[in-house]
Amino acid sequence: MLTGCRSLSWTFFSLTYRRLCTRRSLTSQAALSFSASTVSSIPPYTHSHCFFTSQQASVPLYSSLHSLSAHCSGLMELKEVLQVLEQLAPLSLAESWDNVGLLIEPSKSRPVKTILLTNDLTDPVMEEAEAMNCDLIISYHPPLFRPIKRLVQKDWKQRLAIRAVEAGIAIFSPHTSWDSVKGGVNDWLVGGLGSGQVSVLSQALGGASHSHKLEFTVRSTEELNTVMEELKACDSETTLQHSVGRPDNSGIHASVTCSDSALTPSVQTLLRHNAPSLSFSILKLEKPPLPGHGQGRLSVLDQPVTVATAIQKMKSHLGLSHLRLALGLGQTLESSVCTVAVCAGSGASVLNGVKTDLYITGEMSHHEVLDAVAKGTNVILSDHSNSERGFLAVFREKLAVRLPDSVTVVVSKADRDPLEVV
């Protein structure tokens, strides 16, 4: 009976999803992050997709039913939008130093009807958000980054935070999670020069909760059960994974994995039970790599271009009339570019040491540019946020296809880089 109900549910989901997609005339086929065969069988929220990946993670049936209800009613709560954002770019991909996620949450819950996308939250952008009665601002750069001790009007970022709270506007920032995710900002940026064999410069690693493996020996099954009960008390927030080897003359060999926070109490527990003559070891578990995810991209171009052509292509891709160029030692505008390394924003720390014909990023210091030039590498700089802003339109399509028609997603018209060529 359960199988039959689930089959009927998926059929209902599929039909509903086709209708939703049909009504979205603004969403091009290229903007969809799933294949045609996937769309015909999988409804929104049933599986988790990064921008252009096929990586999937199942979601409980109740979650799918609840999300479908939101589509049918035309209403969507903030927490549901946050779930979609997490599916598109998991916050676990962000750098450890970053401040990502929900930064401001209104005290009164209300349906999300208007979402404003911006690269930076500034006074003009806030005025734009207030004028359209915006419910959620997705600001690529986090407007709140460092810890603050007070909220006062004299600091412009605190002033914007106060205005958002007073207007009941939620603020979310994805920042480096968008940079790292496959199909995110850096893949969009490197695509400006055309197709190629793309690889990640700084590989993202999985955020496994268990980071240590403890191998030990106990004398009996009774002692093993006692030890496991005590270990569970040490690591109550996670489920202990353990294995038991065959007992022999030296005792029962067992192992458990635990989190960083549970390492010390777990070791103390095992030492209490472990006799000096019995074995005990601690192993550090390596986090698995996440293929396609990470900071920066390197592309071996399918069709090499000249430096001059690369400049024109990037101007068109970024929507800019001017770029800054530093020719590498021995290079000219007619020199061939076969490989390119990119990092959105301020990318020198990621690009440094990468052997390639061309660096593309938003900004680098004077001496960082000199270092690259001395090694024969050409450098194109667009200014910081100009290397990121164009992705907002791409993300708008990715987000809009997953939301009900009652939710309007808008790219800010007031958002711009503070620097311009005069």
Automatic annotation (TrEMBL):
A divalent metal cation binds at residues 141, 179, 384, 388. It comes from the Eukaryota. It is found in: Cytoplasm; Nucleus. One of its GO terms (cellular component) is mitochondrion. Keywords: Acetylation, Cytoplasm, Metal-binding, Nucleus, Phosphoprotein. Gene3D superfamilies: NIF3 (NGG1p interacting factor 3)-like. Homodimer. Interacts with COPS2. Interacts with THOC7. This is NIF3-like protein 1. The gene is nif3l1.
